[in-house]
């Protein structure tokens, strides 16, 4: 099958019925990324963008795309990696991050749980009476990403969540009835606290398989490994269901995302600056007197 | 395992961890039904309730429960069946309806597509250039239920949708992004048009398997047959997924329903009387100049 430009197609976009050649496909990904930024006003001239990088396909594709966009727009770009301290995993993904940043000539900063909090994730998971590894990791990583990007002078923190990630989270929140999480998933987070760096998700409308193909076609080396801490079974079930639905009705994930986005202003409006206070221990944004990170750290210290 | 009252349990409510004996189980179903009515103000003294009956488990259990409630409350109860004209199916379910109404001494009215619209559903599906049988059936049945219950003097139309039906529809609407349908699923429909009979769904929080067990324990004979017109494949996929999630995380369907209900006021408020007009052909409530039923009927007449 040929692309409409005449060249041999490398990809079939089922949800739009288009066959695309290599050039038209990579252009289409870049266009989707750019349009998401433009339509949602994610980046302005003069912004200082910190891109969170894990060494996986999503974050390294995001870094490449942001770097491409820099040629047209005038903004600063810095990469920020968080070393959670997961032996045999994170240490192996850091070389991919270093290589990508070197190739693109983007400054890289690496922060670690060990340095910041005193414990690696591997150490944290050795304590008795603990919750799931992903709970600690999520709280600590978000905290560190926010704090470090602020210290790097970021006006925005860019994250590589793709369409699959986002649609899974939306459905999980709906099935869990987790209202506190509504409004946390979106293209752009409101700035509700002076210490909060607004987060942007420019890949939010791009399906995972297009990210993989883009990385492959653009020769972006990334770490294929998945985190050894067991992924949540619930997410796996939701992912399988959405993949099956997408297979039968192309466009389902995108539709779910857009349905959520139409509802989102309502939930986002529920959150006002009064809902966000400041942690009395660390001074970071928090929804209660002490932030979740300080609460967890306290429990770890007592049980380590 | 025994019920907390000491009798042998016949049912285990996984989502609450309760083992229930026959008496406590049937009482719990009646209580859930009553609470749904009370909390949502579904029935008031002096109401004239028309109960839509299909001969299946849900509608006949609803009729029984409404009849029981009548002993405590003072309201009128009439049963209304719609004969769509589906050979080998509807004709076989009508005897179940007649028996239930006779046992309970409830007046029964039967209306038919043939008599009202001139065609049975079997005839409609023989036309060329047609949409799915369920599309015609849904539009015609809703139209006839509304019109006939109004003519019977109903102040409310009670329908037997259970928790499984409702949670499936909610997830289907989310995945289809069908905004026009948001606000159509709820415990109670606002009265937006003088010819619209408000619909109530008192079984909306009761799982399907509890309805089946209740029918069995209360000796309610119902038609087990499923409609021969192929059920929607999409609904089947959504049902399987929700059943699997419910199995793994008891309470998932209920949580989805409640999440939807918390969002629902927003969508219900989007609908105002200005959104509802009157069909210029038949005078029934419609969202456009001509109602969907008249549009379909026109197409059928031209193609029959």
Q: Any idea what the shape of chain A is?
A: globular
Residue ranges of chain A: pLDDT <50 for 5 or more in a row?
Answer: none
The biggest sheet of chain A, with number of strands, parallel, antiparallel or mixed sense and barrel status, is: 5 strands, parallel
Largest interface: A-B, 22 and 22 residues
CATH superfamily of chain A: HUPs
Strands side by side in the biggest sheet of chain A: 5-4-3-6-7
Give the termini distance of chain A in whole angstroms: 60 Å
Give me the secondary-structure category of chain A: alpha/beta
- The overall number of domains of chain A is 1
H/E element order of chain A: EEHEHEHEHHHEHEHHHEEH
Give the oligomer, counting copies of the same chain as homo and different chains as hetero: homodimer
Number of helices of chain A: 11
How would you portray this structure in words?
Two copies of one chain form a homodimer. By secondary structure, chain A is an alpha/beta fold. The first copy, chain A, has a single domain, classed as Rossmann fold. In chain A, 48% of the residues lie in helices and 12% in strands. Chain A has eleven helices and nine strands. In chain A, the strands form three sheets. The first copy, chain A, has a five-stranded parallel β-sheet with strand order 5-4-3-6-7, sandwiched between helices. In chain A, helix 2 packs across helix 8. The longest helix of chain A has 19 residues. Chain A is globular. Chain A starts with 8 loop residues before the first strand and ends with a helix.
């Amino acid at each position: 099958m040929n692309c409409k430009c005449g060249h041999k197609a490398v990809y079939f976009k089922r949800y739009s019925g288009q066959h695309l050649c290599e050039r038209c496909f990579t252009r289409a990904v870049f266009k989707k990324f750019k349009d998401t930024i433009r339509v949602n006003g994610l980046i302005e001239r003069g912004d200082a963008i910190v891109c969170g990088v894990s060494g996986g396909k999503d974050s390294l594709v995001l870094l490449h795309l942001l770097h491409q966009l820099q040629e047209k727009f005038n903004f600063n770009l810095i990469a920020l990696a968080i070393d959670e301290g997961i032996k045999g995993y994170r240490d192996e993904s850091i070389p991919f991050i270093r290589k990508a940043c070197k190739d693109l000539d983007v400054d890289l900063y690496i922060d670690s749980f060990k340095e910041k909090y005193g414990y690696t994730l591997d150490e944290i998971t050795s304590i008795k009476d603990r919750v799931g590894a992903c709970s600690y990791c999520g709280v600590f990583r978000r905290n560190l990403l926010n704090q470090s990007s602020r210290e790097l002078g970021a006006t925005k923190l860019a994250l590589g969540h793709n369409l699959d990630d986002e649609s899974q989270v939306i459905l999980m929140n709906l099935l869990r009835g987790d209202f506190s999480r509504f409004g946390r998933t979106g293209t752009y987070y409101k700035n509700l606290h002076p210490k909060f760096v607004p987060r942007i998700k420019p890949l939010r409308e791009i399906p995972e398989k297009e990210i993989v193909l883009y990385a492959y076609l653009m020769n972006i080396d990334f770490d294929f490994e998945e985190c050894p801490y067991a992924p949540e079974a619930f997410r796996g079930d939701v992912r399988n269901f959405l993949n099956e639905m997408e297979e039968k009705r192309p466009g389902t994930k995108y539709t779910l995302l857009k349905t959520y986005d139409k509802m989102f202003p309502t939930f986002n409006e529920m959150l006002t600056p009064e809902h966000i206070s400041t942690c009395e221990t660390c001074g970071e944004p928090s929804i209660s007197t002490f932030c979740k990170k300080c609460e967890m750290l306290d429990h770890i210290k007592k049980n380590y």
